[in-house]
């Protein structure tokens, strides 16, 4: 059974408390919090201050996804905001292992996110050091995009790499996840489904989360 991680990027920012309460009262497992700087991706979301408000309202595991340049400069701030996991992009980290060490030294989980064009084979030498791989199944920066079908092959390849090393790294899939494709994503080997518009644009978000969880 996959973990469900609704993305707060698709929430109503004028009623974040209500949306956080809804997630707390649902069967969602994680809060997925997308941080965008307008440089690494062509959009700006929010920073550590708003993240702390969200996490203060959260009763779940808090998964922070840094889609930013120079993530090492901000890891301490997001740890202080209450993150349980911080994922950095392999494409943004010249010294990825150093950034992972930095996160782990703070006593929290560390993840690596990869963009659609990035070969998962590049993760081979870092898998042993991390807790999560966030596989982007859309080009990062905006919610509501369509799932890139080739992502399924990347998930399968990554699942094989993790299993062959005997690791417990979770595969998280972020972007375009819907009730229609979630089963195929899980069958490919995903452990965590990030769902933004599918949840927050639903007429009944709580029921949609439950339906995803039941797959």
From TrEMBL:
Its cofactor is Co(2+); a divalent metal cation; Mn(2+); Fe(2+). It is an enzyme of class 5 (isomerase). It catalyses: D-ribulose 5-phosphate = D-xylulose 5-phosphate. Binds 1 divalent metal cation per subunit. Keywords: Carbohydrate metabolism, Isomerase, Metal-binding. Its EC number is 5.1.3.1. The keyword GTP-binding does not apply. Signal peptide: none annotated. A divalent metal cation binds at residues 32, 34, 65, 174. GO terms for molecular function: D-ribulose-phosphate 3-epimerase activity. It comes from the Bacteria. Substrate binds at residues 7, 65, 141-144, 174-176. Transmembrane segments: none annotated. The keyword Isomerase applies. Catalyzes the reversible epimerization of D-ribulose 5-phosphate to D-xylulose 5-phosphate. HAMAP family: RPE. This is Ribulose-phosphate 3-epimerase. It comes from Ferruginibacter yonginensis.
């Amino acid at each position: 059974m996959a973990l469900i991680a609704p993305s707060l990027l698709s929430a109503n920012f004028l009623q974040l408390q209500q949306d956080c309460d809804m997630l707390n009262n649902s069967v969602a497992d994680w809060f997925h919090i997308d941080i965008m700087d307008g440089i690494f991706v062509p959009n700006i979301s929010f920073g550590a201050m708003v993240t702390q408000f969200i996490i203060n309202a959260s009763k779940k595991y808090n998964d922070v996804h840094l889609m930013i340049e120079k993530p090492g400069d901000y890891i301490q701030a997001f740890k202080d905001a209450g993150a349980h996991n911080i994922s950095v992009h392999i494409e943004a980290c010249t010294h990825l292992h150093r950034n992972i060490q930095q996160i782990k030294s703070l006593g929290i989980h560390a993840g690596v996110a990869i963009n659609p064009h990035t070969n998962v084979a590049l993760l081979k030498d870092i898998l042993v050091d991390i807790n999560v791989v966030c596989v982007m199944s859309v080009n990062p920066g905006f919610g509501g995009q369509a799932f890139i079908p080739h992502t399924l092959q990347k998930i399968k390849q990554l699942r094989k790499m993790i299993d062959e090393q005997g690791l417990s790294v979770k595969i998280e899939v972020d972007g375009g996840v819907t009730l229609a494709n979630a089963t195929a994503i899980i069958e490919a080997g995903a452990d965590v489904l990030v769902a933004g518009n599918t949840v927050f644009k639903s007429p009944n978000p709580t029921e949609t989360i439950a339906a995803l969880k039941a797959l």
